[in-house]
């Protein structure tokens, strides 16, 4: 993969920058093996076998165990191929003077699917012609350090083809076998980007998604989408959250950015699942403490408040999904007013609806690391790390904090946020998830185990957790069409 990518990029550089391009001398040790994950490949490729052994130890049949192991191997292999490609692109780009290419930018109230497919591609031709009569796409020139390849937005491209497949029973990667201009329209929805629907429907925002997440039983309204949702908000989740004001508790009312983050989170959730009940009303406030991303506060069976820190470093959209996950755990799943994952318990009950999800969590290396940290002596150094500013520090484990991170209810908050991000194809949430994927938050590991507390899961580990959440929400009758 590294060699093929390097050869491909060398050809592109020669075509676009013939006078300045020079042969690529790639250091394969920097783009393969341990360089991909900073983990010995022998350890990485032992994981599928551990998956098999773990399944067998829990009484699963050999067929089930080997299927799980094969799935894990497929995921690891696909991830490594992609990592080799991205590492090669970065290495090659650092040695080149840059490239210029063109893209189609969507413009106007709506866009056909054919134009949307075109907007996911990069082109070398400078003067692109309209795709069809009435096409209002804008052609833009982009200067970059490297060529991103033909597809520049894989998530959007896959989402278009999936919706066409769901609606018509077929799809064409070339966008020619089916008239994509006629069956899909992209309605602009504020900062969350295009939302796909069909020409004979009118999109009225996330509120159109009923309890099953796919439009409910009522026909779609012809009322146009409102720039600012009415006070009762979109759907059971949105209608339960209102803007709090200054009160006896000296709370800070939500800023515009706080509300934007919450609305973005609700819209992403609505693209994945619906609700089957009305939820309690709960006020939204702005979290002002710099060390807190957000808080869902409850007292007994009552929901008290929701706080979101709008600062960029707090990843407000992803944090909002996380805290809404706690809200749903408390009021939207199982018995209202009871945390379905438990309160301060360390395990999930075997008869709980969360049991299979919890089993999937415990099979991940991320959670195993947290359990190991819980047993670690706070007097013993866990790791030596280098902070982004160059400071060398000893990292000692806080048992209190790691116990908090390992509790099922907190694990569910993080898993729910990652599940919504990946299943909704939301670019803002995915970017924030990527930033949180580094447990050291920018710190480099010098010696020891990890540079910080592991929270979110690598994609290959999370696949099984995501599948378990799919099954859970399907069992609850809440899962919409992905």
TrEMBL record:
<feature type="compositionally biased region" description="Gly residues">
    <location>
        <begin position="207"/>
        <end position="216"/>
    </location>
</feature>
<feature type="region of interest" description="Disordered">
    <location>
        <begin position="203"/>
        <end position="255"/>
    </location>
</feature>
<protein>
    <submittedName>
        <fullName>Uncharacterized protein</fullName>
    </submittedName>
</protein>
């Amino acid at each position: 993969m590294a060699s093929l990518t390097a050869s491909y990029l060398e050809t592109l550089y020669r075509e676009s920058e013939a006078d300045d391009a020079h042969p690529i001398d790639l250091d394969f040790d920097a783009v393969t093996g341990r360089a991909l994950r900073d983990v010995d490949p022998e350890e990485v490729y032992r994981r599928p076998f551990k998956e098999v052994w773990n399944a067998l130890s829990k009484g699963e049949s050999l067929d089930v165990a080997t299927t799980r192991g094969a799935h894990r191997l497929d995921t690891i292999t696909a991830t490594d191929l992609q990592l080799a490609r991205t590492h090669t692109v970065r290495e090659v780009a650092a040695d080149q003077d840059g490239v210029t290419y063109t893209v189609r930018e969507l413009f106007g109230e709506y866009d056909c699917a054919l134009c949307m497919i075109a907007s996911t591609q990069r082109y070398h031709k400078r003067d692109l012609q309209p795709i069809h009569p009435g096409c209002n796409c804008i052609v833009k020139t982009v200067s970059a350090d490297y060529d991103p390849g033909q597809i520049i937005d894989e998530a959007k491209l896959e989402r278009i083809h999936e919706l066409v497949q769901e609606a018509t029973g077929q799809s064409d990667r070339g966008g020619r076998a089916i008239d994509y201009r006629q069956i899909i329209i992209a309605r602009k929805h504020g900062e969350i980007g295009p939302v796909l629907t069909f020409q004979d429907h009118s999109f009225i925002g996330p509120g159109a998604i009923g309890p099953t997440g796919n439009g409910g039983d009522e026909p779609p309204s012809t009322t146009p989408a409102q720039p600012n949702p009415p006070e009762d908000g979109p759907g059971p989740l949105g209608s339960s959250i209102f803007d709090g004001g200054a009160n006896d508790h000296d709370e800070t009312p939500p800023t515009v950015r706080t509300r934007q983050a919450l609305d973005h989170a609700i819209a992403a959730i609505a693209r994945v699942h619906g609700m089957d009940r009305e939820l309690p009303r709960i006020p939204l406030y702005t979290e002002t403490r710099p060390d807190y991303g957000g808080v869902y506060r409850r007292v007994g069976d009552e929901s008290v408040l929701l706080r979101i820190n709008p600062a960029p470093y707090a990843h407000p959209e992803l944090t909002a999904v996380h805290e809404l996950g706690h809200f749903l755990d408390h009021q939207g799943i199982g018995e209202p007013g009871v945390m379905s994952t438990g309160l301060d318990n360390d395990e999930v009950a075997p008869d709980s609806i969360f049991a299979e999800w919890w089993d999937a969590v415990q099979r991940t290396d991320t959670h195993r690391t947290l359990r190991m940290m819980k047993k670690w002596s706070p007097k013993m150094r866990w790791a030596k790390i280098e902070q982004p500013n160059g400071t060398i520090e000893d990292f000692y484990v806080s048992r209190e904090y790691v116990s908090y991170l390992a509790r099922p209810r907190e694990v569910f908050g993080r898993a729910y946020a990652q599940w919504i991000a990946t299943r909704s194809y939301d670019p803002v949430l995915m970017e924030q998830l990527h930033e949180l994927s580094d447990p050291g938050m920018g710190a480099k590991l010098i010696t020891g185990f990890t540079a910080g507390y592991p929270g979110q899961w690598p994609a290959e580990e999370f696949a099984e957790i995501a599948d378990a959440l799919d099954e859970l929400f399907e069992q609850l009758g809440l899962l919409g069409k992905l």
